[in-house]
Fold this protein.
Amino acid sequence: YIKGREYENNADPRFAAEREAVERGGGRVVFSSGEVVFSSTMLIDSLGQSMDPFHSRLTALLDRSELGAEALGEVVSGFRGKKMIVVGEAIMDTYVLCDRPDVAGEGPMLTLRPLETRCYDGGAAIIARHAASMGAKPVLVTALPADETGAAFERRLAAEGVEVVAMRVENPIPEKQRFVVGTQKVVKIDLVRPYVLDARQRDELVALIDGQGDADVGVVADFGLGLFTNQTSRRVCGCVRRRCSFTAGDISGSRADLGSLRGLDLLTPSESELRSAMRSFDEALPAVTWRLLEETGAGEAIVTMGADGLVGFYPFQDVSIVSEDPFGSRLKAEHVPALTGSAVDQLGCGDALLTAAALARAGGASPLAGAFLGSIAASVEAKRMGNLPVSATDLRQIIGRLHASNLAFADADVVDSANQSRRVS
């Protein structure tokens, strides 16, 4: 008999009666945080229709009116012209393409021969680039060096429709080099000198945000490179909340603090980032997410789980649903399966998801529609090598393909061991 970790110290008499009945019958009660497990029967049935065990869930999602092709298309059309303020560190993502590795003659070390170098403006910059490519009008508030590299960075982003408002610092633009053989990354080198801001610079950063006026969307992206301390992060979030109709945030890196993103409407951490921030590795995912929303004051969360897709969490609007059932979750959860079978490059998937979901929610889309469009954006990014922006056209194409495949799908007849035919969907 398996129950969630949150039941381990539960004193409710109904659960006590359940536990006593199980143990009296010779059974055991196991507390687990839960995993996605498929029985052999379910796997066999799913193989009759698709190699993806999440196919039936995706089919059910596409049948919802809010996820119809026309409805999602209208949401994407609503991205156009929306002003977005993005605050965070800019990063240079460098890919060094190499030939097949070998072992050096003088010792057991990896030998690589660089063939080509490709550079991408990443970090908070790629969030702004995604937004511009989707039709929005982004303003990037960041820190840049007062030299030609900083000026060249601004020119590149201006050419893509991104306005850059920079605080000048002595640090060079942080660079993360990845050595790639084929589609496999074999070595990563972080050429990063963390920012150390004094009180005047922290005030300047907040003033730059405040000087952008009101906006439709505000995004705070902490990549753990020193631009945000806990106090600075809370001041930045407060300023973004005052200026923006809808706010969202995310972190990346072990030094970033998810808990310092206070009062935002949407957070989009990965499951590992969430559990590390909450110091909870055994609790059920809804329980951990609830604690995150309680501690940060965030409105909702999208938790990404890699190949298992994502789960969108948001509180029930009807409080009576929670109060009537003490065993029920205080959050409504919507699982969206991963929309790509195998990722070519996972870099930037979370940034694409954050951008699309924030723009969708700012335009009035439902939490599920926002999470679904975020998943679509992440799937587009996952199929590309490098940190490239996702466009509104990319989103429309995937929406069309998903609905076209859903219309073409026919329910299958499965014959079980008793030779009884039954229909599965």
Remarks:
- Residues 80-244 form a domain with the UDP-N-acetylmuramoyl-L-alanine:D-glutamate ligase fold (CATH 3.40.1190.20).
- The first strand starts at residue 2 and ends at 4.
- Confidence is low (pLDDT under 50) at residues 36-51, 321-328, 408-425.
- The two ends are 29 Å apart (CA to CA).
